Amino acid sequence: MDTTQHERHLAEVSDQGFTIVPNVFSSQRAEAFARRIREIEHETLKPLQPNEKEEDSSFLRTAGLLRLDRMFWDVPIDPIISSLVEGILGPNFLLSTFTGIDLKPRSGTVQPLHPDDALVPVPRPHAQPIGCTVMWVVTPFSKSTGGTRLLPGSHREPLDLLFDQNDARLAATIQPELVPGTALVFDHALFHGAADNPSDDWRLGMQVSYHAGWVRPYTNWFRTIPIEEVREFPEALRDQLGYQTFHGIGTAHMTPGSYRESYVNREAREPRISLE
Hints:
Elements: H1 3-16, E1 18-21, H2 27-44, E2 59-62, H3 65-68, H4 79-89, E3 94-103, E4 131-137, E5 149-150, H5 167-171, E6 183-187, E7 192-193, E8 203-211, H6 221-224, H7 227-230, H8 235-240
Antiparallel strand pairs: 1-6, 2-3, 3-8, 4-6, 4-8, 5-7
Helix pairs in contact: 1-4
């Protein structure tokens, strides 16, 4: 991506809350992603509980992709996307969530509009973005497949409008036509939501969300991925999981006794960041 395109995408995120980046990955990779995620769905999907019905859910969400297959390691650190995310959030941004979302056919369910930053207690509109989501389009997104609905400009609205789902507001949403290989990038503050999928096919995307380096990621990577596995990750991916300092401030490699401290229980303290 050249500088002009890069700046245009950043301007679109700032102005309308989202941008569409074509040709981020090939159709062959899209097919491989779909095949593997659906294998994982088949292998790991838990049975319905006694009080659950299949029609109670409209999609399957597959977490833990970084641990389940190396083919997913390059997704969060894709250079084109990482460059845009850094332009939106600043350096030392963190990976917050990474899941596959497979929308069921003919579920009859429409997801309410919502922002992805509702849990972060920072007044809206934000002085600067605190997070962004990148939806990797694995199968076609459109009105006929339940493509993501977006409310342009809503990243500048107060959170109170979360409860305002009136007809006029919903009529202002758009559903971009997105082909496999496309990435939909949007500010966490943007109101969005999945629609009903009236087709006979499942609609699959990979949701990759990031937070600014000063915001706690929604996923606790230190607890969910054993350090032995983290050591095998590319350095850029380890950084996104939090194995780095923020703007060079702090300690990224902790060794007991390497600095003066006054903790009473010094001997019991266990390093949290060291990869050694």
